[in-house]
Amino acid sequence: MHIKMKSGEFIVLSACTMMLTALGIDIMLPAFASLREHFGFKPESTATAQIIVFFFMGQIAQLFFGILSDRFGRLAIYRIGFPLYILGGLVAAFAPTFELMLGARFFAGVGASAVFMTTIAGVRDRFVGDQMARTMSLIFTIFLFTPVIAPFLGFAILSVSSWQMVFLTPVICCIVIF
Predict the structure, then answer these.
(1) pLDDT of 148-163, one tens digit each?
(2) What one-character DSSP code corresponds to residue 61?
(3) Rounded distance between C-alpha atoms, residue 160 and residue 117, angstroms
(4) Is the torsion defined by CA of 52, 55, 60, 65 positive or negative?
(5) What is the rounded CA–CA span in Å between residue 104 and residue 91?
(6) Between the chain's N and C termini, which has fewer beta carbons within 10 Å?
(7) Residue 147: which residues within 8 A CB-CB, separation 6 or more?
(8) What is the mean pLDDT of residues 43-51?
């Protein structure tokens, strides 16, 4: 039996899945000072910025996931992307070395790119013309609002918990969305 999702539910789910990319980047920003201390970097070190760079490097996989989702189906790529994002986030939160954290962030970025591209493909599957443009505009509005809120969320979490909890928050959100 196939149950068709209502349009509003689909839009909310799509916005949430795309939000994971921005959340995975911007929530980390307030934790950089704690990370420098944890890994023994000097206070003026910019090494922690690599955490964002490695996540972005994983985004290159978008070039492949659009094609793969057309070939193997949307669900198959979601089943790759979500676990990569979750596993990468878990490893990054508990990585004993900075290098392992960077590798984990790369794989989380690959997972985010799979989810991102598959969501766009899913919107293209469901809507056409003006309705597709309106739907994508709404989804991207929510997606672009995330970088505004995420650093504040990271700071709030950091004020009551550790940098590891900041790193685990996108993982928890991903698990809920998955």
Answers:
(1) 999 999 999 999 999 9
(2) G
(3) 34
(4) negative
(5) 6
(6) N
(7) 22, 25, 26
(8) 90
Residues 6+ apart with CB under 8 A from 162: 34
How far is the C-alpha of 142 from the C-alpha of 57, rounded, in Å?
23
Of 19, 167, 8, the residue nearest 100 (C-alpha): 167
CA dihedral 153, 156, 162, 166 (to 10 degrees): 0
Q: Which residue has the tokens 């550790």?
A: 162
Q: Are 95 and 101 in contact (CB under 8 A)?
A: yes
Report DSSP state, residue 44: T
Q: Which residues of 51-78 are buried (b: 16+ CB within 10 A; e: fewer)?
A: bbebbeebbebbeebbebbeeeeeeebb
Give the pLDDT of residue 2.
53
The answer to whether residue 34 scores a pLDDT higher than 90 is yes
The residue whose two tokens read 């979500």 is 82
Model pTM score? 0.91
Residue 8 pLDDT: 84
Structure token pair of residue 12: 């909310």
Please, are residues 87 and 174 in contact by the beta-carbon 8 Å criterion?
A: no
Q: What is residue 40's three-state secondary structure?
A: coil
